[in-house]
Design brief:
The relative contact order is 0.11. By secondary structure, this protein is α+β, with helices and mostly antiparallel strands. Strand 12 and strand 13 form a beta hairpin. The chain is built from nine helices and 15 strands. The radius of gyration is 22 Å and the shape is elongated. The structure holds biotin.
């Protein structure tokens, strides 16, 4: 596990003080540096938006923190073992950064988060709307000791984890649309994209990228997304602490990922089905094998969608894009 940087540690110590000042001398002692060096770090933190008051006693007190999803903000909320958070104010795509880190040997559980993405990637070559400072955009480097063919199931595991995090945060019951979109009031709040690099039988790394619309006002979504996307803020009227939510999501995912590795997708299948918005619904699916329609029966233990066609035949769909007559979702 990576040791947190000096800024992150100063913020953590000042947070522990809960408004009571910590002396510069004490901070210098803990960091093993001079008081002048501490002063420089404090000045840099102020530049980043931390409100740190200098007290006449020579101490520092944290009285306000920026709305950011950086390591210093996420760290106090983390409960799992994934703690190495790489934060960017602006980046093309957290997927790209996570892939580069993975190629360079980053260990499992390395997390990449950005305030804004200029080239956010969605499924099926689409783009992902990723404006600054309102939502969560994160990617996680994983190294599952699994056959490459099982990696798509990881997307369903991520969908369940995101749905569970939202249910805890809001008391709402989100719906999952196969394979891994999470919806509130029939509009998308979470998108999951899993990318991987592998050999025939061995996965080098898998990178789930998760986008969650948290604090974006409904009116801020582009016109073409108005009917399709929403946010937790738009649905509940309440702002979400993005850093706390990020930590919650990571914890939910890490727990389910552990079960997925030891017992397969069947370990989260019942939970997935409990969120499914499609069971019993007639759908059309455009997949690489062509277009199919039928009534959704559920998912199999490998995450494939089970569909009963009009002629009664039950077919399995492994990949594809679902739509529901009447424009639902
Ligand atoms: C979808 O099309 O539903 C998947 C969207 C995935 C978006 C996330 S945001 C964080 C990560 N970085 C990206 O560029 N994409 C994923």
């Amino acid at each position: 596990m990576k040791r947190p940087g000096a800024d992150e540690r100063i913020v953590a110590w000042l947070r522990e003080g809960q408004g009571v000042s910590v002396s510069g001398e004490e901070l210098a002692r803990r960091l093993g540096c001079s008081r002048a060096a501490v002063w420089k770090r404090v000045a840099a933190l102020r530049e980043q938006g931390y409100r740190i008051e200098g007290r006449p006693s020579g101490g520092y007190a944290l009285v306000g923190a920026p709305d950011r999803v950086g390591p210093a903000e996420i760290a106090p909320h983390l409960t799992g073992t994934w703690r190495d958070v790489h934060w960017f104010d602006e980046i093309d795509s957290t997927q790209r950064v996570a892939r580069d880190l993975a190629r360079a040997g980053a260990p499992e559980g390395t997390v990449v988060v950005a305030e804004r993405q200029t080239a956010g990637r969605g499924r099926l070559g689409r783009s992902w709307h990723a404006p600054r400072g309102v939502n969560l955009y994160c990617s996680i480097v994983l190294r599952p000791p699994l056959a490459p063919a099982t990696v798509p199931q990881l997307a369903l595991v991520c969908g369940v984890a995101a749905a569970a995090a939202i249910a805890e945060e809001t008391d709402l019951r989100p719906a999952i649309k196969w394979p891994n979109d999470v919806l509130l009031e029939r509009r998308k709040v979470v998108g999951v994209l899993v990318e991987m690099e592998s050999e025939m039988e061995r996965v080098h790394h898998a990178i789930p990228g998760i986008g969650v619309n948290l604090n974006e006002p409904q009116s801020a979504f582009p016109r073409d997304l108005q009917g399709k996307a929403t946010s937790l803020l738009a649905v509940t009227g309440r702002r979400v602490d993005r850093a706390a939510f990020a930590a919650r999501l990571l914890a939910e995912l890490e727990a389910r990922y552990g079960r997925f590795l030891s017992s397969g997708f069947s370990s989260v299948r019942a939970e997935w089905e409990s969120y499914s918005s499609l069971t019993g619904v007639e759908v059309q699916i455009v997949s690489p094998e062509g277009e199919r329609s039928g009534v959704v029966l559920g998912v199999d233990d490998d995450g494939a969608l089970r569909l009963r066609r009009a002629d009664g035949e039950v077919v399995r769909v492994i990949a594809g894009e679902v739509s529901v007559r009447g424009g639902y979702a």
